[in-house]
Write a structure and sequence with these properties.
By secondary structure, the protein is an alpha+beta fold. About 20% of the residues lie in helices and about 35% in strands.
Length: about 400
């Protein structure tokens, strides 16, 4: 799918004022930009771009007396897949972490590990290290902090958020990533665009947003304590220790912000997604051969497209299986692909059956995600239910076939 993003930011100034801006899409998404990204200033003052120590793209300019208006736009190609959920991701011992990651265990301006370490260990010391611990932290922060724009305060720190129990998206991120650092998990702050794909329409959808990433099993994973649910369509702009490292604009002199508008539009929703939102990949007791009420509902309300497979590992919970995502091409789970005749209605029923989504206490046992699945005619995307709890104690179904276990 294609997402159109942009912004318009205006500042006034009484005299020429140097500025640093961080408004570019992050280099990790360069290959997804269709055409070129545009960032211009009015009046037409030159902007010199450079990479900061975190790898973010920054711009330097001198705003003239009177002020400057900055405008940007880009068209970005996106997979349409939600944030990945990997319950098997492991926490690495600190002495085995790469040197450059120790930076993300330490205190920073908004993240006072010294004030929150004892609190973190009292709350999460008995959780399983790794993904389960991060999930527990996200759930705690999600429930502990009340969201509201009236609670925004650029001076608010993670400890302030913990004590006040209120904030905006950056505050959720600051508290959660500080708890992660306190528990020995490298964590960094992220800023970028995020709209309202795959969720009920929001009268004030998020556009510029803050979230965080954790380092587990040798790579960075996206986490979001504000929403505490995998989201679709994030477009990263910058990463750093906390929000101080990724300020959208920094001025070296007195300037007043007089306008800030952000645009976000799903440009190719029907063309890219219209044929995917009605597809469901099943790999367990919803497949043919089972005769319980939910399997009957699927049989009555959907058309079988064919046998299909996805990348992942299969485990046996009790009488039903668990699909866990995997990056190894050798890990394959087999199942069936269906086209739902009334997708919204049926997916609500299956969400209730799997006890996931809005209204259920997180972390839920399953999360519904859009995944790439392969069938004889090629690859497509489809909804499926991914297991969201630890699997270390579960027996693996090595064949990837639930019916052949």
């Amino acid at each position: 799918m294609e997402i159109k993003v942009g912004f318009e930011i205006a500042h006034t100034a009484v005299q020429p004022t140097p500025m640093v801006i961080m408004l570019s899409i992050h280099p990790s998404r360069y290959s997804d930009i269709i055409g070129t990204e545009s960032i211009v200033a009015e009046p037409n003052v030159p902007i010199g771009f450079y990479r900061d120590s975190f790898g973010n793209v920054c711009g330097r300019l001198v705003a003239p007396a009177g002020g400057v208006t900055l405008r940007g736009s880009a068209l970005v190609r996106d997979s349409g897949l939600p944030d990945v959920v990997v319950p098997t991701a492991q926490q690495l011992p600190i002495d085995q972490l790469p040197d450059d990651l120790l930076f993300y265990l330490m205190a920073s301006r908004y993240c006072e590990t010294d004030k929150l370490t004892d609190i973190a260990w009292s709350l999460f010391g008995n959780t399983q290290p790794g993904w389960a611990r991060v999930a527990a932290i996200c759930t705690y922060v999600h429930n502990h902090v009340t969201f509201g724009y009236e609670h925004a305060n650029y001076m608010k720190s993670a400890h302030d958020v913990y004590e006040q129990g209120a904030g905006v998206c950056r505050d959720f991120a600051h508290l959660a990533l500080t708890f992660c650092r306190c528990m020995g998990i490298p964590a960094r702050y992220c800023t970028g665009y995020m709209g309202d794909i795959g969720i009920p329409p929001d009268p004030a959808p998020m556009d510029f947003s803050g979230w965080f990433e954790v380092y587990l099993s040798g790579q960075w994973y996206t986490c979001d304590a504000r929403h505490n649910h995998p989201r679709i369509g994030r477009i990263l702009m910058g990463t750093g220790r906390d929000a101080a490292d990724v300020a959208l604009t920094t001025s070296f002199g007195r300037m007043d912000l007089v306008k800030l508008t952000r645009s976000w539009r799903l440009k190719a929703f029907r063309r890219s997604w219209g044929m995917m939102l009605d597809r469901l990949f099943v790999y367990g007791t919803l497949m043919r051969g089972f005769d319980h009420p939910m399997a009957q509902l699927l049989s009555r309300g959907a058309d079988l497209i064919g046998e299909a497979r996805c990348r992942g590992r299969l485990y046996l919970v009790t009488h039903y299986p668990a699909l866990v995502l995997s990056g190894d091409p050798a890990d394959v789970v087999f199942g069936e692909l269906y086209r739902l005749r009334a997708p919204d209605e049926l997916l609500r029923e299956f969400d209730m059956y799997e006890a996931c989504g809005e209204g259920f206490a997180a972390p839920t046992e399953y999360v519904r995600q859009m995944l790439s699945v392969t069938l004889e005619g090629g690859a497509t995307e489809a909804w499926t239910y991914v297991y969201n709890w630890p699997v270390a104690h579960l027996a693996r179904i090595a064949s990837g076939r639930f019916l052949a276990r």
